[in-house]
Structures are given as C-alpha cells and as structure tokens.
C-alpha cells in the first residue's frame, strides 16, 4: 500500500510531522484537524496505518512494565524475566515487558528475585507500536 492509495480513500490532504518531532506534535495535529488515523512509516515505507487505538490494539499489549537496573547492559536481566508478558524489548536504559497486566508482571519479577532500581506500569502508546514495527525508538 502506498500513501497515494490512502489519500484516494481518505481525501487529498496530507498532514506530516518531521521524524525528529515529538509524538505529541502528531497527536496535536490530529486533534486540531479531526484526523482519526495515521500512517507509520519506516525508511520511506508504510508499515502500518489506522487509528491510534487500533494500532496499539493490533501491535502492542494493554500495558507495559518498564524496568530499570543499575547496569549498562539491561540485556543481562532479560533471561531472568523471560516468559513474563508477551514479549520483552531491551533498550539501552531499560527493559520493556509487554503484558496484559503490568502489576501481575511486576509481582512475577519480584517473585523471581529480580530487583530493578525502578518499575513503572503504564499503558501502551504509539511509541511502543513504532518500536515493535521498526525495532527503533522514536528518538533513534
């Protein structure tokens, strides 16, 4: 699918944000212009499109458990938490555990004797979708 295919169905106006702009800038534009869907692109190719909610539902989980450790290599903790949640993403500064229930995942981490410096449960966002689809964070 190409951008022209989407514009043919959705209308001829295209709103964009620069790759280095905050996700909130895209959401502000969507709100101002009553736009209900967006396109996720990676290296010039469309990798997904839809409403923010549908993209999160399709490509992420309800919640994300963020774990930060006192280490330069967060990957070393990945094996200890393997199997918790649906998938784990290792970033330079934290581990992300994708799960339906972040509190239950945090409890399981604790039961396994893993002691992060901090644990934060949050709802999935479009940044999680982008990370899943491209393997990169929005600031890469």
3D structure, described in words:
This protein has 140 residues and is α+β, with helices and mostly antiparallel strands. The protein has 2 domains: 3-58, no CATH class; 61-123, Alpha-Beta Plaits (2-Layer Sandwich), CATH 3.30.70. The chain is built from 5 helices and 6 strands; from the N terminus they run H-H-E-E-H-E-E-E-H-E-H. It has helices at 3-10, 23-32, 52-59, 102-111, 126-134, and strands at residues 38-42, 45-50, 63-68, 87-91, 94-99, 118-123. The strands form 2 sheets. Strands 4-5-3-6 form a 4-stranded antiparallel sheet, with helices on one face. A hairpin with a 2-residue loop joins strand 4 and strand 5 (94-99). Helix 3 packs across helix 5 (126-134). The longest helix is centred in the first third of the chain and has 10 residues, at 23-32. The radius of gyration is 17 Å and the shape is elongated. It starts with a helix and ends in a 6-residue tail after the last helix.
Keywords:
140 residues, alpha+beta, Alpha-Beta Plaits, 2 domains, 4-stranded antiparallel β-sheet, two-stranded antiparallel sheet, 5 helices
Examine the secondary-structure arrangement and name the CATH architecture of the largest domain: 2-Layer Sandwich
What's the CATH topology label of the largest domain? Alpha-Beta Plaits
Going by helix content, strand content and strand pairing, the class is: alpha+beta
Compute the average pLDDT: 84
Distance between the termini: 25 Å
Shape: elongated
Q: Catalogue the unreliable spans.
A: none
Order of helices and strands: HHEEHEEEHEH
């Amino acid at each position: 699918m190409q951008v022209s295919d989407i514009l043919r169905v959705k209308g001829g106006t295209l709103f964009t944000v620069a790759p280095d702009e905050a996700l909130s800038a895209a959401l502000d534009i969507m709100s101002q212009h009553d736009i209900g869907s967006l396109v996720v692109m990676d290296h010039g190719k469309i990798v997904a499109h839809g409403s923010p909610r549908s993209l999160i539902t399709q490509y992420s989980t309800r919640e994300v458990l963020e774990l930060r450790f006192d280490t330069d290599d967060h990957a070393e903790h990945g094996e200890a938490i393997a199997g918790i949640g649906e998938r784990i993403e290792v970033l330079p500064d934290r581990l992300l555990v994708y799960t339906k229930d972040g509190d239950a995942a945090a409890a399981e981490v604790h039961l396994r004797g893993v002691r992060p410096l901090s644990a934060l449960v949050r709802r999935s966002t479009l940044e999680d979708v982008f990370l899943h689809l491209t393997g990169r964070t929005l600031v890469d």
